[in-house]
Amino acid sequence: MLRRRRLSPRYLPVVIAIGVTACIGVPDTRFGQNKVQYDAFDFEILETEHFDIFFYEEEREAAAQAGRMAERWYARLTRLLNHELRGRQPIIYYASHPHFKQTTQIGGAPGEGTGAVTEALKRRIILPFAGPLKETDHVLGHEMVHAFQFDMTQRREGALSNTNFPRALQLPLWFIEGMAEYLSIGPDDPHTAMWIRDAAINDKLPTMRQLNNPRFFPYRFGQAFWAYLAGRFGDEVVGRILNAAARSGGAEIAIERVIGIPVDSVNAEWHEEVRRAYDDLREETHDADHYGKLLLSKENGAGLNTAPVLSPDGTELVFLSIRDVFSLDMFRADAETGKILNKLVESGTDPHFESIQFIRSAGAWNSTGDRFVFGAVTGSDPVLTVVDVSNGDIVREKVLPDLGEVFNPTWSPDGSVIVFSAIVGGFSDLYSYHFENDVLRRLTSDAYTDLHPAWSPDGRSIAFVTDRFGTDLSRLSYGNYQLALMDPGTGRIDAIVSFPDAKNINPQWSKDGRSLYFLADPTGITNVYRLDVGSGRLYQITDLFTGVSGITALSPALTSAKDTDKIAFSVYEKGDYNVYVVDEAGVLAGEPVASSQVGVRKSR
Ligand SMILES: [Zn+2]
Q1: Same domain, residue pair 148 and 14
Q2: What CATH number is given to the structural domain containing 317?
Q3: Is 64 or 98 the better-scoring residue by pLDDT?
Q4: 405, β-bridge pairs
Q5: Which one of 60, 189, 393, 497 is least enclosed by Cβ atoms within 10 Å?
């Protein structure tokens, strides 16, 4: 995040919605307007070769891993950018986003869409653990690029003056943030590729001038343009262009000096290459209305329709949407017509909620269809909140002060227990909460990632997503997100068939409990697949040009009804998120996937 540019309110809703990868400088008008420090953190310092890592007790293990990640980034970026940072680099780690929001290190509370901050002058990196190790590593790498950018473009150490400030502050966001994304994620990023395909097909790829307009989300488009530059001219041009920009103060002049080609030509050649790459794909794939019915879109109401959750009988749907300009709210709609029945939570004006976790979470209906549970933050504490769907009244709320954040609750079929994922101590684990006994239980307890739990209709197993089968903690190499089943009685975890070389997320049970619908990107595009759990056979349900997506690549975007054969999902298209509903048996059966793509890894 660069604390210097305030985006005009016009762009605010869109930016809030999409600005979630690592850091973004938007004033948050909705949550936490008066910054209150709720907890005092007792920081210790972990010293590594180049870093002072500030942490507190509950994040000790995560901080040790972050120290190793930081030195690894230092080695990569020093080589790539041909620069050593001056002095020791401070990193201040919080165990979760609600803790991070209480930081007194920076002026003003960071908003929900702000993942991290790197200060231009003191060059301190201030951030929360993301939960999944791979995401924590990405956010740290992104902020570290900012530290290099500031250090490389500041002439001398010392106080800020007209002649002594990091030139990076003058450079356009696409240049600075796009570079941070490119260097921390690399050239292959299915999420950004989805954005670029969508822009290309709608003739909305930004020209050089348009790249400077924050309407073209600088993180995604900047990352794609840097990936093109580095792919064509070599990674070493990134550091050379940054150095040239520090001298000239201009992004375009710097690019032209280093690559020797007018920047408009390079920009046009980038567009041409993108279009060529996706022409055939357009013919081979379909729009979402080929598979089902468009239920929610800007045309029939409002934009940014995400996190859909079908009621047990499939007649209603809870989802998030921006219907008022500055507020992302939770609505209940008729799942046939899309007509809004009521607003369940008004996040913008309700002082009770700091956050409804709109970026990475969806809620769940109970089996009788009269209650809805979701994870939220109130004050500085995570909560499980249960509302009466007929009027949005809060009927139960469980404050979980020992957890950092709670996401994606799922209800046991008998209604007694809720299982959810939580960030605790900087890691993502599964928990259960028994309402009547008021008992909280930890189901997993390790540095591996556990997400998106979904309780089976017979109550005997919980499907979820984990990186535990491929992650090597000693080397800090991260496995893909795979599907697994947990026995809620014994806690035993078994891997089930997934695409071994792809992201597999968001499992949802079919009515008969024999199939799991889920999202995967074995082709580089996220689509809906179906696993026949008994036989281990996989079927592809959609084959989209853009992809099934929530706000981030890990956001839930798929839902199935418990008592009828029906699914709904959100699709990224025309720069927005629309919800589609599918209930045709032939479509839900899907096409068999070639067995060569399929695999299962051993349980750990
Ligand atoms: Zn950034």
Answers
A1: yes
A2: 2.120.10.30
A3: 64
A4: 423
A5: 393
Residue 253 lies in a domain: no
pLDDT band at 353 (very low <50, low <70, confident <90, very high): confident
Q: What is the mean pLDDT of residues 413-420?
A: 96
pLDDT in tens, 515-568: 999 999 999 999 999 999 999 999 999 999 999 999 999 999 999 999 999 999
Q: Does some domain include residue 227?
A: no
Distance, in Å, from the CA atom of 574 to the CA atom of 197, rounded to the nearest integer, reads 10
List Cβ neighbours of 329 (8 Å cut-off, separation of 6 or more). Answer: 320, 321, 322, 323, 343, 344, 345, 346, 347, 348
pLDDT in the model for residue 357 = 82
Query: What's the CA-to-centroid distance between 27 and ligand 1, angstroms?
Result: 15
Beta strands 51-55; 44-47: pairing state: antiparallel
Q: Residues 294, 165: one domain?
A: no
Is residue 578 in a domain? yes
Tell me, yes or no, whether 256 lies in a domain: no
CA of 345 to the centre of ligand 1 (A): 30
Tokens 């947990």 sit at which residue?
486
Query: pLDDT for 378-411, tens place per residue?
Result: 988 999 999 999 999 999 999 999 999 999 999 9
User: What domain range is 45 assigned to?
Assistant: 1-169
Q: How confident is the model at residue 159 (pLDDT cuts 50, 70, 90)?
A: low
| Position 52 pLDDT exceeds 90 | yes
Domain count, the chain: 2
Residue found under tokens 């239980």: 441
Other C-beta atoms within 10 Å of 244: how many? 18
Going from the Cα of 120 to the center of ligand 1, the distance in angstroms, rounded, reads 11
Q: Which of 142, 169, 196 is the last residue of a domain?
A: 169
Given a contact cutoff of 8 angstroms between Cβ atoms, the answer to whether 62 and 427 are in contact is yes
pLDDT tens-place string over residues 297-342: 999 888 999 999 999 999 999 999 987 766 789 999 999 999 999 9
Q: Which residues have CB under 8 Å from 347's CB, separation 6+?
A: 30, 31, 327, 328, 329, 330, 353, 355, 356, 358
> What separation in Å is there between the alpha carbon of 229 and the centre of ligand 1?
19
Report CA(176)–ligand 1 centroid distance (Å): 7
Q: How far is the CA of 116 from the centre of ligand 1 (A)?
A: 8
A 10 A CB-CB count for 16 gives 27
Alpha-carbon span 199 to 216, nearest angstrom:
10
| Cα 603 → chain centroid | 26
Distance 572 CA to ligand 1 centre (A): 23
- Given 138, 169, 200, the domain boundary residue is 169
Predicted TM-score of the model (pTM): 0.92
Q: What is the pLDDT of residue 573?
A: 97
What is the CA(275)–ligand 1 centre distance, in A? 28
Beta strands in 236-315 (DSSP E): 293-296, 303-310
Residue 10 scores a pLDDT above 50: no
Integer Cα distance of 439 and 409 in angstroms:
15
Residues in Cβ contact with 458 at an 8 Å cutoff, skipping those fewer than 6 apart: 413, 513
**Is the pLDDT confidence value at 7 over 60?**
no
Residue 157's domain is classified under what CATH number?
A: 3.40.30
Q: Which helix (H) or strand (E) holds 407?
A: strand 405-411
Tell me the pairing of strands 89-94 and 125-128.
parallel
Distance 147 CA to ligand 1 centre (A): 10
pLDDT score of 140: 97
